[in-house]
Amino acid sequence: MDPALLRLEPWTDADLALLRLVNTPKMRGHTGGPESEERTLVRHRRYLDLVPSGTGCMYRVVLEPEGVAVGTVGYAERPWQGGTVHEMGWNVLPPHQGRGIAPAAARAAVAAAARTARHRYLHAFPSVGNPASNAVCRRAGFTLLGETDFEFPPGRTMRSNDWRVDLRAVPAG
Question: The whole model's pTM is what?
Answer without folding.
Answer: 0.92
